[in-house]
Specification:
Layout: H1 5-30, E1 51-58, E2 65-73, E3 82-86, E4 93-99, E5 102-106, E6 112-113, E7 121-125
Antiparallel strand pairs: 1-2, 2-5, 2-6, 3-4, 3-7, 4-5
């Protein structure tokens, strides 16, 4: 019974290929650097504010225009909170500022009018 030299050569070639493939995978994987990261999951209660003392500041020259809206929130929002109001259902959003829980919203750009105002929608996001 004689051994087949071609068969030995194929086994050797397959072994060498597997060895080279293993080294290439190791070298590629060894080159990856991943920085430390953080991940988390949690939940918290979302509660609303109670709005009170709403005042519409009318334009001194043309009282059909609303120049500002002021109101008070039930508690002071966190620093950097986003506060906006809308005076018409499909209208513009106006940015607001607050000092403590007293909020002022300028409604001159675009100019709000008494005739068009049909709701007061307040959004405050901490």
């Amino acid at each position: 019974m004689s051994r087949n030299p071609g068969r030995r050569w194929r086994r050797f070639a397959a072994l060498m290929f597997a060895l080279l493939l293993g080294l290439a995978v190791y070298a590629f994987a060894a080159a990856n650097t991943v920085p430390a990261t953080q991940a988390g999951d949690g939940s918290g209660t979302i509660s609303g504010y109670t709005i009170s003392a709403v005042h519409y500041g009318l334009n001194g020259t043309d009282p059909s225009k609303i120049d500002s809206v002021t109101f008070t929130l039930s508690s002071t929002p966190a620093a950097g909170s986003t506060m906006k109001i809308q005076l018409t259902a499909a209208g513009s959003w106006y940015s607001c500022t607050n000092v403590a829980a007293a909020v002022t919203c300028t409604t001159t750009s675009p100019q709000a009018t008494v005739l068009a105002a049909d709701n007061l929608r307040v959004v405050v996001a901490d």
